[in-house]
Amino acid sequence: MIGQAARFSAGLCTFLTMLLPPDALIAAEVYKWTDESGRVHYGDKPTNNNAVPLEIRKDPPSESGMEARRQKRDVLLEAFDEDRRRKKEQEAAARREAEERNKRCAKARKRLGKVVNAGFLYKKTDDPRNPRVLTEEERKVETERLHSQVEQWCR
User: For the whole model, what pTM was predicted?
Assistant: First the structure.
């Protein structure tokens, strides 16, 4: 029963010290002692003869240290922003490249389809009203060229 009351008292003391402003905690003296059952306790008032005062040092935050941390944080945030921007640019470039590739693929397939399905292939001459009909060998070369374009753009 006494142990429960002591634990409750220690818990209440801890809770109340959390409510105090930090400057009040610095001014208070803290003691450390061990009870009969071997448990270590801390408090602002010694409860038995073996209580030892503890020296608590609180270094004031150095302004240069805070500024250095702020600068490191800002550099890190800038690096993250730069990485994000670079990644977005790369993704946009990849999308543009894919769109261009798809356009060229569709165009190459359309040209190939026209050549394969055409009865005759014509080549322009100086006289616009009199084009020249391609020979079977020229048609074969043109078809192979268009096949290679389809392979190039439609991978």
Answer: 0.47
